[in-house]
Amino acid sequence: MTTATESTPGTSEFKSKRILVTGGTKGAGKAIADRFLQGGGTIITTARSAPDEKTEAHFIQADVSTSEGTTKVIREVLDRFHGIDIVVHNVGGSSAPSGGFVTVTDELWQQAINENLFPAVRLDRGLLPSMIERGSGVIVHVSSIQRTLPLYDSTLAYAAAKAALTNYSKALSNEVSPKGVRVVTVSPGFIETDAATRMIERMAEKDGSDYATARQKLMDMLGGIPLGRPNKPQEVAELVAFVASDRASSITGTEFVIDGGTVPTV
User: Fold this and answer.
1) I need a surface site. Which of 4, 118, 167, 253 has the fewest CB within 10 A?
2) Is residue 251 within 8 Å of residue 182, measured between CB atoms?
3) CA-based nearest residue to 116, from 93, 132, 100, 85
4) Would you tell me how many other CB atoms lie within 10 Å of the CB of residue 132?
5) SS3 for 61?
């Protein structure tokens, strides 16, 4: 016979938890923030632009790819909320053109590092001390399967930055886990967000095909997805919520891949 505990999923799963989600206003980040809200947490999101929809989450407008932006977030989190319990580093992405290594300039390499590695490094440096002082907390770094399955044509620098993030996450876990702070990496494959849907629609229009054909073409470009479809944002959010919850209280220093089987190797 089992009884309900505080670690049982539900509307109070994250009650009294202060949770920061970077890039938490759109796509998978919004789904993650919404999932924590459903669990009763106090949610703080940050992004360059304000959310399109009204939400119960507290919002800090900042560009965390800059040191000024991360400093602003750290200051507001510590001043307004007196610390943080869970940090989800979801922000990231790539805007580099296709064409392989020769098209990736120094500026594009630096941009990839600024957007996909430095936000986590800087925010952790500012927020982890208060976690360590309390002897508890969870850090979730959202990486990518491209850290092991890079697409050299257009996301070479992004893939390298995500590889650096995953490596950093593992090293950080070794340092702070003995002090009560768990550090976990979640690495999604292709997520069918609103932005991805718009991209597929543009591909279909360009090719003179339909949405399903263009969607399959994109999956084929990734080497195929054995599950037959991309991730849903809510599925990624559910995994993040699990690793951040007390249900995963003995999990640290681990990478969780959610990709429908895209990565073809063990």
Assistant:
1) 4
2) yes
3) 93
4) 14
5) strand
pLDDT in tens, 241-251: 999 999 999 99
Phi and psi, residue 195, nearest 5°: -65, -40
pTM (two decimals):
0.92
Contacts of 28 (CB under 8 A, 6+ apart): 90, 142, 188, 191, 193, 233, 236, 237
Contact between 96 and 103 under an 8 Å Cβ cutoff? The reply is yes
- Minimal CA–CA distance to 193: which of 28, 50, 52, 21? 28
- Pull the structure tokens for residue 98: 């296709």
Q: How far lies 195's CA from each of 26, 190, 200, 201, in Å?
A: 9, 12, 9, 10
Amino acid at 211: Y
The SS3 call for residue 20 is strand
Give the type of residue at 39: G
